Amino acid sequence: MRRTILSTTAAIAATGLALTGCGGSEEADAGPEGGGGEGGGEISIITVDPSNPYWSAEIETAETVAEEMGYSTDTSAHGNDPDEQTRLMETAINNDVDGILLDPAGADESVAIVQKAVDAGIPVSLVNAEIAETGLAEAQIVSNNAQGATVGAEAWAEAMEYEGTYVELLGKPSDNNAQVRSDGYEGVLSQYPDLEKVGEEIANWDRQEGQEKMEQLLSRYPDIDGVVAGNDEMALGAINALEQEGALDDVEVLGFDGNDDAAQAVAEGDMAATVLQPITEGTTQAMEVLDEVIRTGESPLEDEKVALDCVLITEENADQLQGFSLEQ
Length: 328
Hints:
The protein is of the alpha/beta class. Helices cover 38% and strands 19% of the residues. Residues 21-43 are annotated as: Disordered.
């Protein structure tokens, strides 16, 4: 029989930006090098993987917001490859775009190319992932992955009734979010001695790879009770593998991102919970910062790093989730 998830404290609403007032008109008109224009122009949007629903939502939001602000856009994807990211960033720099919205390919790997854009007078706003230095990007707006992993792991542990064996599917190692989420899961689950992690595999955020790695894990650990995954795509791949083996009813699965397929899986009882990342809100705010810098030369942020809290999605609110937004 499938265990049903018990009532868990409702998730935390995403926080907003702490904005400060901009300078007077003379200062705004002058601005630093690379800022102080009238707005409009071209923004280069460089993301990770358009085939993933999460990054697809990031792209759609960025393009829509940019268009509403009067900008044209050029969108490309680096696939978490730092070399490809460098090529795409250099193209944007050579094209003398007015601003760059970047979802970085690695915290350390992205520093030099962001520095190059800034040196060229092009403001850069980061979304979804951080880089290893501050003072370069105008904004680093990310989901609070540690908080999200914590609330997700607590809900999943409750669904597991705090006992049993489980495996973990990990995201791409070069993406800092993969380790942050894994550490967040471990920080919670290690508190319960009757929960035992018996195996793990890297599935690189991908559904098909998640299914394949889950199949491998099931061949080694056929009697597991649970799966924690670093994102929804890997979790959904795990569900496919479990369903094929006729084991889904006996295994609790945890996802992360809050995409529509995951919401449906939670509503149908195939996934214990997922964690909504407020990517549409974060992308909108990153674009607003970029626009402000382009127009005035001044960032509206007190601190370039902004972490937006994630929201726990269970059977209680899964039907309210659509397009990475939770209807109230």
